[in-house]
Amino acid sequence: MLKISHLHKSFGDNAVLRDISLEVAQGQVVAIIGPSGSGKSTLLRCINLLEKPDSGSLQIADTEVQAATLTRQQETALRAHTGMVFQHYNLFKNKTALENITEALIVGKKIAKAQANETGLQLLDRVGLREKAHSYPAVLSGGQQQRVAIARALAVKPKVILFDEPTSALDPELVGEVLQVIRSIVDHQTTLLLVTHEMSFARDVADRIIFMADGAVVEDGTPEQVFNQPRHERTRKFLSSSR
Ligand code: ADP
Ligand code: MG
C-alpha cells in the first residue's frame, strides 16, 4: 500500500531523513517511536508531501512519485490517498465540527452539501460527537477537537492515515478517549501510521513498531520484538528512558 524508497530530506545542512526505505502493507497499523528531533514528523510530512523530499520515491496505492520529477498533479493525487491528524488538531476555527468534516467533501470532492452533511454526521457518530455537530472548535475540549480531526481525516476515505502525536497536546484525562477512537478505526483495510509516545498503546494496537533515531530506521519489528528483544542499544536506551 505504501512504499518509500531511499527518501532523503535536509533542512539546510541538517540531514533530517537519511535514506529511509519502508514498505507497509494494506491495513497494517505501524507505530513510529523515537526521540524528539529524530525526523518522525518530517517523515509523515514527506509522505503526504507537506514537505518535499530531496530525493527518493514514494508510492501509495497506484500513485508513484519520484522526488526529483514531482509534478503538481502527482502531488494532488498522492495527497488524496492520505489523511493527516496533527498534534494540535488544526481545525478550522471559523467552521463548526460538521463543516470541518464536510469541507473536503464539498470543496475537494464536489459532493452535494446534503450528502456531505449526511456523511459528516455519520462520522461524528463514529467518534461519539454527533451532538456537537454545530459547535465551533473553541467550545470543544482538546479531546473532542482531536476526535473531530480524526473524523475529518476519515471523510475522504484515505488509503493511509498519518497521525502525528495525536495525544501529546492533551490533558492526561483526555488522552483515553482519543486513543479509544483511534483503536476503533482500525479496520484492517486502512493503513495507519502513528507517531506516538504512548508506548503501551503502541504495543497494544500496532502490528509493527518502527524506532527512528537521527533520521534513520534503527529498529523495525513486531511489538514483541522491539519492546522485549530490541536488537540495538539505542532502542534499549530509548525504551528504558520512556517507561
Ligand atoms: P520529530 O518529529 O522526530 O521530533 P522532526 O521531524 O520534527 O522530528 O524534526 C527533525 C529535525 O528537523 C529537527 O532537527 C528539526 O529542528 C528539523 N526541522 C523540522 N522541520 C523543519 C523546518 N520546517 N525547517 C527547518 N528544520 C526543521
Ligand atoms: Mg514530531
Automatic annotation (TrEMBL):
Pfam family, one: ABC_tran
One GO molecular-function entry: ATP binding
Cell location: Cell inner membrane
Annotated InterPro entries: AAA+_ATPase, ABC_ATPase_HisP-typ, ABC_transporter-like_ATP-bd, ABC_transporter-like_CS, MetN_ABC_transporter-like, P-loop_NTPase
Keywords carried by this UniProt record: Amino-acid transport, ATP-binding, Cell membrane, Membrane, Nucleotide-binding, Transport
SMART domains xrefs: AAA
SUPFAM superfamilies listed in its UniProt record: P-loop containing nucleoside triphosphate hydrolases
Main location: membrane
Residues covered by the ABC transporter domain: 2-239
Entry membrane topology: Peripheral membrane protein
Domain of life: Bacteria
PANTHER family: AMINO ACID IMPORT ATP-BINDING PROTEIN, L-CYSTINE IMPORT ATP-BINDING PROTEIN TCYN
Protein's UniProt name: Amino acid ABC transporter ATP-binding protein
